Amino acid sequence: MGYMFNYLRPWRQQIPILAGSRKKRARLTFAEGEFAAVYAMSDVHGCYNELVEAHRRIEQDAVRIPGPKLIVMLGDYVDRGPDSSAVLEFLSKTPPPGFQRFVLCGNHDAELVTLYRKPARILEWLGFAGTETLHSYGIDIEHLLQSAAGRETIARVIRNMIPERHIQFLESLPIMLRMGRVVFVHAGIKPGIDLNRQKDSDLMWIRQPFLDEGPQLPVLVIHGHTPARIPTFGPQRIGIDTAVSATGRLTVLTIKGTRVGIL
């Protein structure tokens, strides 16, 4: 354990480009203390080996903790890293014995769904991310584009190579998990807006003014989306995206009782 601190004390302060209209995603609620230990990580971005190692360390850490345990994934499982397909396959399987696992949706995950359903946006999507994701499914998108393959051909290749079950898995993901006064979400929340009125697009994409102002609600927000080399602590928020695809560092935040730590 790196360090511990009480998550109820005040914190010192240290847009969507492509998102379209979609069906509102689910929001989950649990009572505070329902789990003996909670482990959260975010922005895996195709880094399968680091994801597996993180799960191994979580299981090792939790072996002496009695009671139900939870793993919360905060979104962005695809793009940037080399093994997006393996990450989705892993997360769609059963969690480790003794654990529940909830997988929330990030903006990159939602955009992959949009590409699959609306492949006419392939060039826009590639400008945002995605080449590594397609490679992980065996799709040589550069060759397809250089060969002047039409949209119908590219769409057919994408649908043939990316399993429908991976897309359905991403479509099924909730957008927020609340546990007492702690809120887990991919990007953050719009400051001062009731949680029930938050838009999916803000929960997946927001940076400012959330990063500087915090939630402006009586909650602590655990989020990813905005990368840094180490976890960041702002007003009533903790950012745990440590840019694993660039740094090799996948941060796991722990909550045990009223104590928060970094595994």
UniProtKB/TrEMBL annotation:
Q: What does the record give under GO molecular function? A: hydrolase activity
SUPFAM superfamilies (alphabetical): Metallo-dependent phosphatases
Lineage of this protein's species?
Bacteria, Pseudomonadati, Pseudomonadota, Alphaproteobacteria, Hyphomicrobiales
The Calcineurin-like phosphoesterase domain covers: 38-236
For this protein, the record's Gene3D superfamilies field holds: 3.60.21.10
Name the chain's protein. Serine/threonine protein phosphatase
Q: Which domain of life is it from?
A: Bacteria
- Source organism (scientific name): Rhizobium leguminosarum
Q: List the Pfam families hit by this protein, alphabetically.
A: Metallophos
